[in-house]
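Operator note (shift B, R.M.): manual run for Transcriptional regulatory protein requested after the automated queue skipped it. Running by hand, logging everything below so the morning shift can see what happened. Input copied straight from the record, untouched. If output looks odd, do not overwrite the archive copy; leave it for review.
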Amino acid sequence: MTQPITILIVEDETALAEMHAEFIRQMPHCGQVWLAGNLAQTRMMIERFKPDLILLDNYLPDGRGITLLQELAQARFPGGVVFTTAASDMDTVSDAVRGGVFDYLVKPIAYERLEQTLERYQQRMQMLANSASASQRQIDDMFNAYARGEQKEVLPVGIDELTLEKVQLLFTDPEARHTAETVAEALKLSRTTARRYLEFCASRQQIMAEIVYGKVGRPQRTYRAL
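Run finished. Output pasted below as returned.
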C-alpha cells in the first residue's frame, strides 16, 4: 500500500495557504498537511513534524525562502522542496535549481500542475522505498520528466476534446474573466467538472489563474485569457 505524503505549505497569505491545503487534502495520495506563515514557524515545524514535502514561497515576512532552501540543502534534508513563488527571473530559478528543488511552480499556481507534481513526488518516494537500485529508465523518470520536453498527444482521463474546445472558446475575448461557477453555468457542467477543465487549460498556459480577494468571504479563483 502506498504511503501518503505529508506536506508543509509555507505561505504568508493565510487565505491562499488554506485554499492550497483544501485542494491537497482532496488528493488520495496526500496525508497530513500543515501551514506555516514565516521562516521561523517553518524551521520549527520542519524540526517537529519532519514533512515529506515542503511547498515553499520565496517572499516571507522574515526573509526569503531561497535562504531556507540553502539551509535545507546543507543540512541534507531528506524530504523534497517545491518552490512556489511569483518570481520567475532566471537568477531565482537558477538558485532554486542549485538548491535541489523537486519542482518550481510560478504563482498563481495551476492546480492541475500542482497535482502532477504531487503525483510525481509520491512515485519517487515509492520507488526509493521499494528499490535497492534503479534502472536508467527509472532514473530518467525521476530527474528528467520535464527536461525531456515530452508532450502527451492523448488528453488525460476526464478531459474530453469537445468540452475542452468549448471552454477554450470562452476565452477568445482577451478581456474575458471566468470562474468555475460562470463556466459551469455557461456550458451546463458541474462546478467540479468546470474547474477541472479550467485548471487543465491553466496548466498548459492557455489561460491564467488569479486569486481575487473580495471585501467579504473567501478569496475567489478566477481565470483570464493570456
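Quick read of the result: The chain is about 45% helix and 20% strand. The mean pLDDT is 85.
Leaving this for review. - R.M.
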